[in-house]
Amino acid sequence: MRALAAALIIAACIAGAALAQEAPLVFAPHWEAEPQPADYVRLYPRQALNQNVSGVAVLCCTPRADRGMDCRVAREWPADQGFGAASLNAAQRFRLTQTSYDDFQSHSDTQIRLSMMWAAAIVSDEARNRLVNIDRETGFICEDLAVTAQP
Fold first, then answer.
1. What is the mean pLDDT of each run of 10 residues along the chain (151 residues)?
2. d(Cα 63, Cα 71) in Å, to the nearest integer?
3. Exposed e or buried b for every residue in 45-55, given b needs 16+ CB within 10 A?
4. The pLDDT of residue 122
5. Cβ-contact 113, 141 below 8 angstroms
6. Nearest residue to 118 (alpha-carbon basis) of 74, 53, 34
7. Which of 115, 112, 116 is nearest to 96 (CA)?
8. 73-82, long-range: CB within 8 Å, 24+ apart, which pairs?
9. What are the backbone angles phi and psi of residue 131, rounded to the nearest 5°?
């Protein structure tokens, strides 16, 4: 289980660094609370874990007045493995700092994009590349979805 938690953290760090180089951030949130490694281990979709399947879910989130997040799944890979639902559950543990929430209010036309990578015990190079590429491809997905949703 510790190896799984370490793999999740490493994958998220790698993807976060890759995204930071590809897309400028308009709003960079700071968290008062966020999911812990044990949360990710507990929430990992059981079927995917048993089959050693890694995945990613990209969420578009809007902060609430209590500084928690209302999120929806914008992209999930692979489909039907439960990574979207697991990510929505994990996102319930995020809470912005008061300063970040106040800063977000000045960017109220945008959403917070959360990319959650779920790495199984053994991740092939092909799967790792796919996860990172999805993270890069969805850098502006929340803004793109907001534009297409407007009347």
1. 43 38 61 95 95 94 94 94 97 95 80 91 87 88 62 44
2. 9
3. beebbeeebbb
4. 86
5. yes
6. 53
7. 112
8. 74/113, 74/138, 74/141, 74/142, 74/145, 75/134, 75/138, 75/141, 77/130, 77/131, 77/134, 78/53, 81/45, 81/47, 81/48, 81/53, 81/55, 82/45, 82/46, 82/47, 82/48
9. -60, -45
Separation between Cα atoms, residue 96 and residue 53, nearest integer Å: 31
The pair phi, psi for residue 108, each rounded to 5°, is: -65, -10
Query: Structure tokens of 36?
Result: 């812990």
Tokens representing residue 103 in the block: 């800063």
Q: Residue 31 phi/psi, 5° resolution? A: -105, 135
Helix (H, G, I), strand (E, B) or coil at 64: coil
DSSP category for residue 68: -
Residue boundaries of the structural domains of the chain: 2-149
Q: Which superfamily is assigned to 2-149 in CATH? A: TonB (3.30.2420.10)
